Write the structure tokens for this entry.
Amino acid sequence: MDVTAMLEVAHHLARVGRYDDAIAEYDRVLTADPSSTTALEQKGNVFYALGRHEDAIACYDKALEMNPHLMTTWYEKGYTLRKIGRFAESITCFERALSLDPDYTLALANKGYALNALGRYEDAVACFERILDAGPNNIRAMTAKGIALLGLGRNEKALAAFDLAISINPINTFVWQHRAEALRRLGRSAEADESHQHVFDK
């Protein structure tokens, strides 16, 4: 059996949204080659797309048992855990991915988001600052840093982060909403109302 060709078929089925067929094809691959970590990771991604998060995690775990150096698998597991609110566990996964590639921006960003969710704002700021050092125009990191700064009560610095993000992309309603919160905390209610209006105008 041509496992490579079978994998291509499975990947195609997943790409076009035929998830049940994709899972069946990945199972065929795994019957032919039980050591295929690629099939396990991609099967996990299909389970994630179906909202079957525990099944996705089980696939990632099996792949990582075979090979603990699979950077993207650690990331996918961490991302799934973060999405279901298991933030501390997700951070561990992102750190494993970062131990394999310290410049893995997606893992660093998602670690920061999970830290924000846990209220570990100082650690989150450090993550986002590393990203911004490498890419100063990263709006997502800029905004998430602003949210962390709000959590720390550093409202002026948070406002500066949101203002910079808006200067790059003025139609991002998510940023306008958090900018309004920063202004409100600073007692600048009229400006906050004006900023909040952008959420509805876009």
Remarks:
- The chain has a mean pLDDT of 95.
